[in-house]
Design brief:
Number of domains: 2
Mean pLDDT: 80
Shape: elongated
Low-confidence stretches: none
């Protein structure tokens, strides 16, 4: 394989995965642009090596890459209490490994279709989130004066969420304050109103999303 062809393949993978990864990072997703670039370029490099060396077992090498990336994607899953999330991130990691492989093998049409499909999913996902279709998950930390009854906090949460559970509690005896961390789910537009609702309470010292 000539040098110019190799450089073109690496350049395409780098630029396109950088654009998508940057979009994910700006959306404060757990996996940013660096991870997507490394996965895509690495997969592309192995595919180029397999093609350049005309390896007989190149299919086995490619299969091993996809399997290995699957384990990496599993590490992106986040388990909290009885809930697991991060599936979109894990799937994106696996998807971009295939994208890098496609470019590395010179399958530009397949790679282009894959890339457009990824963006279609990302754009539609933002549309659903913006229009409060489906669930939106965040962590909220509420600091209060003393030990506030649980009902006071859950009473506010019920009005703005569809589901929630207590993640952690911190009591500060010296300062006579308490801190409660909840994982909440619900329409984005309602969840965003939580900060104002909590802040209006006399017992609330501070409230923030993590």
């Amino acid at each position: 394989m000539i040098l110019s062809e190799v450089l073109i393949r690496f350049f395409l993978v780098f630029v396109l995965s950088f654009i998508y990864g940057l979009n994910r990072q700006r959306s404060h997703k757990p996996v940013g642009f660096g991870t997507f670039i490394l996965i895509s370029v690495g997969a592309c490099a192995l595919a180029v090596i397999a093609v350049d060396m005309n390896l007989e077992n190149s299919v086995g090498i490619i299969g091993a890459i996809v399997t290995g990336i699957g384990f990496l994607g599993a590490g992106a899953l986040i388990k909290e209490s009885d809930k697991v999330f991060g599936f979109t991130t894990a799937a994106s990691i696996w998807f971009f490994a295939i994208f890098g492989l496609s470019i590395g093998l010179g399958e530009y049409l397949n790679a282009g279709i894959i890339y457009l499909m990824v963006w279609a999913v990302a754009i539609f996902d933002k549309y659903l989130e913006k229009n409060a279709i489906g669930s939106y998950r965040r962590k909220i930390v509420i600091q209060t004066k003393g030990l506030v009854p649980k009902e006071e906090i859950t009473g506010v949460l019920v009005k703005h969420t569809t589901d929630f559970y207590l993640y952690s509690t911190l009591l500060n005896k010296k300062e006579k304050t308490s801190s409660f961390t909840y994982v909440i789910e619900g329409p984005k537009n309602k969840i965003e109103g939580l900060l104002k609702s909590f802040y209006s309470k006399n017992w609330c010292l501070s409230v923030r999303f993590d």
